[in-house]
Amino acid sequence: MAVKKINRPPQNWWERAYVFEIVRGMSITMKHALKSWFTPEHMPIYQYPEERRPVAERFRGRHRIRRRPDGSPTCVACYCCQTVCPPNAIDIVAEECDDPAIEKRPQSFRINMIRCIYCGMCVEACPKDAIYMSQDYEFANQTREQLHFELEDLLDVEKGDR
Amino acid sequence: MPKLTIDGVEIEAAQGQSVLDAALAHGIHIPHLCYHPRLKVSGNCRMCLVEIEKAPKLQISCGTEARDGMVVQTKSEKVLKARQSVLEFMLINHPLDCPTCDQCGECKLQDYCSEHGQEESRYGEEKHGFDVLDVGPDISRNMNRCIHCTRCIRFLRDVAGSEEFTLYERGSHTTVGPYLEKALESPFSGNLAEVCPVGALTCKHFRFKGRSWLMEKSRTLCPGCARGCNAYAWTSKQEVLRLTPAENDFVNQSWLCNAGRASIAQIEAKNRILEPTRATAMEELAGVLRALIEKDEGEKVGVLASPRLTNEDLYLIRKLAREVIGTTHLAFVPGMSDDRPFGPLDTPLTEWFIRADPTPNSHGARDILHSTEHTENAFDLIEAAEKGEISSLLVFSEDPVTSFGDVDRATKALGQLDFLAVIDSHFSPTAELARLVVPEASFAEKDGTFTNEQGRIQRLRAAIPARGHSQSAWQTVTEVAKHLGTVWTFNSAAEVDREIASKIPGYQDLDFDTLPLEGLALVQADEADQAEAEESTPDQDKKE
Description:
- The complex is a heterodimer of chains A (162) and B (544).
- Chain A is of the alpha+beta class.
- Chain A contains five helices and five strands.
- In chain A, a hairpin with a 7-residue loop joins strand 2 (90-96) and strand 3.
- In chain B, helix 7 (281-294) packs across helix 15 and helix 11 packs across helix 13.
- At the A-B interface, helix 3 and strand 2 of A face loops of B.
């Protein structure tokens, strides 16, 4: 393997002692420490679990499926989101719905949240405007299985939840 | 032969051919909905309007005969505007429920609307809806989606031979449905799902099982009868979801009967055999045979093959029986003969379509098994077992206990045997008696060829991997033969076919990989029979 030798300019004893550099670095640290001490409101810091950072209006967090007024999912299992999903994270099984006006509903609707790349294509593709991405990003979990979200995990907690 | 110009291209049409037919034959696509190449022309959808020079108005190309010197425009502004208007009218009462509709992705109305339609409707009134009506166990009808093209009515009346559907009511209430709201009875009603260009008539068995664009289709054969209909097996996640007809002018045109469509149920049937009786079943089977061969009692082994097996399976079964075991007790249950003409005919499907023989490969079994000097039918084999002429029996995909007719007598005869092995895909009364059961792949899981009643060799393609530990009979036979010390080197059905082509009269042109889509007609079976009778095939050495 070829090694290229670089001839650095030799340092004198003052430079080798690093005293000036240490003082310079510490002064920057102290400046910020004192600033946060006296004017904490100007610091870009959130006290995370108690204090949450505001997210953008169009933030793409965990998916939610809207409910009809009677509480059933708006989704008609058309497989459009499954088709368009780039990492194949969505898996749907359709079934007959008792209501002839609705005809079809999802028997199971599963999103693999680890596989999901949060691109929002499923929302774009949905012809019924059933799926949307909420601003919730806190769904870390212990196992992979728990991150396979089923229909019950995805349905709106209550009507109009966002 | 009239010569006409379509879109500036001069083409030659056949005498009496319509402009639409001529255009389609020359690769010019004119949108059409009510026109179907195998149905009578009705000309009611107005989708195929074209501009013909010197004609006062736009003409329907499906109902206009191609004449010499015609100048036809299919993409002029006037035509495109007319198409757009036709589609706008069709969508007035159409529910636009593509997300729920099973036809989505295969729907002509959907395709044409995205290609030629306009984005917004100018119709502001409420759409007219219809009541739900159950039209039988095979087809589900959704009248809201209907465009009144009458293809279904014409199919049932002119092709299926049962006039069950008609148009009633008027205007936006026009309904296509059965007389007196009776359920469909035609054994060909399943075809309505393909005949209907929109989602008004869809297959009930396939309802909501999958989306057309998410499935893969492989061209295979229907195993339901001796016709050997060409079919597409649509699969998703290694499951066959439906069987739809594939075009073959010589065999099934574009139709498939309801029973044929239902044959996919056998793949997931509850009584499917998926595992052998024991993991060492093959060694055990080979051990029993080896002991008999060494005692020079190969003649005491009976082998019962089935016309449900492919030519490749049958050939290797014959090879095992004749050359390795050395028995003449090789038989199969012959299918019923059918004296009706094979067709395809212009008469109703009920008169010729479904064959009396319910097995797909009786012709192949006759060609391959009867080309040895001595074979008998299954009933002789039961009698041989009664007389003690055979002491062991290998049964391939057959159920002699049931097919013999006398269950008690057959059960007793088989009970006298020292050894009974059944190689089958489904449990049967015979399999219950067997000492060894080896799983066999179903029709959707194996590669091979069937020879239909007419003597046409057609290709069966595996649509899904074999379930459990099942495999094709030729693989099972090869494995057993290897345990018996042969040096058979068959690794695929194509390799077996190469040997069939050289050994079986009539099959000399068979080449697995280049078998045409429409199948290969056998080399004159009669001549081949004679040639075979003259040429006595000497017994080859046991164990090649």
